């Protein structure tokens, strides 16, 4: 059997014959010229070297299928992964109660089947909350890890190829939970969500939670105004004021390491407003802040590596920590591209954020509606139409190199996308405002250089 890791986690175990069956089904549905070549059958027993060669070929095959928008988004491929996940974890199909958290800590208990996919569970939660159908697509389910102080560390957005109940129970750790949060980046969409009582309450609870956890920066005067609006239960006005604050609508990640502006810098990364924001602690303890716009990233890649053990005294490979890195190639100035690497256990979640920002930009650029982007009916069944991709891990100990192939290329997609700037508050009352030096990464680049 082969272990398939998806988004850095063991997803399922499958045999060669099962993968061959998937391949034949894909060929039947989409034609031999669309589906990548499959490692051939062998008559005789494989040698260890041939077993490893086949494993590499199967890995490349699965990555190629997943990276193809038609094959990777197909129900054939996704249902294969879901079924294999359920069989691997040996969880029979039965009715269970799943607990989903809201941002304010409230628990929503939904009765689902263990075999229900992400979309089904999201529907069940929305139904329990009385959230109208046309607003369901503005929200997503996220797998999070609860930290000791009650905050959350984001693991990933739950995808269409997994079963949420199986994903969370197979981790055998009560710290892992499923939480419901909004899943768009442009705060203009808040208006749609706030039209309905339940949408407003969910957005309000998330905003209050993000302020309490220090994700949104608030000075004393703003804090006083927010408190007053909270006492009056003026939820819309509360959200309107919060929208003007620094880091509203951003996801904050755990402290990690970056090689920018120099190797080994400690950084807190936040994702929002179509950018990755860095708060970097330099070796001289000074804090610098800057942002990397998604429209100036030519491509990005997630790599995983396992440290080599030193001889017999080293720890066994099974216990080695997998190191995850997100590297992106960035337009620093008009004719200079540079790789920036973030080393973080949350690299996959960062990549999923970048992908969904690009998806949202593309929908807006084409004049589409976010409602259509998130929800589309195919053959009577609800399907997501955003191009969320699974994140593939290139071979171990890979290094960012512009000549490597598996990368999410953006330059051709985003050639003429231009973003309106958002004015950041530079009030002296802002937390640590004097320590920040804004946007030092790309001085002197205008929109015409995108």
Automatic annotation (TrEMBL):
Annotated protein name in UniProt: Sorting nexin-17
Gene Ontology terms for molecular function: phosphatidylinositol binding
Bilayer topology annotation: Peripheral membrane protein
Assigned keywords, A-Z: Cytoplasm, Cytoplasmic vesicle, Endosome, Lipid-binding, Membrane, Protein transport, Transport
UniProt cross-references to PANTHER family, sorted A to Z: SORTING NEXIN 17 AND 27, SORTING NEXIN-17
Main location per the UniProt record: membrane
Residue stretches making up the Ras-associating domain: 94-185
UniProt cross-references to Pfam families, sorted A to Z: PX (PF00787), SNX17-27-31_F1_FERM (PF21273), SNX17-31_F2_FERM (PF21271), SNX17_FERM_C (PF18116)
Assigned protein family: Belongs to the sorting nexin family.
Organism this protein belongs to: Furnarius figulus
Chain residue ranges for the region called Disordered: 381-404
GO cellular component: cytoplasmic vesicle membrane; early endosome
Domain PX, chain residue ranges per copy: 1-88
Entry annotated with the keyword Protein transport: yes
Chain's role: Critical regulator of endosomal recycling of numerous surface proteins, including integrins, signaling receptor and channels. Binds to NPxY sequences in the cytoplasmic tails of target cargos. Associates with retriever and CCC complexes to prevent lysosomal degradation and promote cell surface recycling of numerous cargos such as integrins ITGB1, ITGB5 and their associated alpha subunits. Also required for maintenance of normal cell surface levels of APP and LRP1. Interacts with membranes containing phosphatidylinositol 3-phosphate (PtdIns(3P)).
GO biological process: endocytic recycling; intracellular protein transport; signal transduction
Subcellular localization: Cytoplasmic vesicle membrane; Early endosome
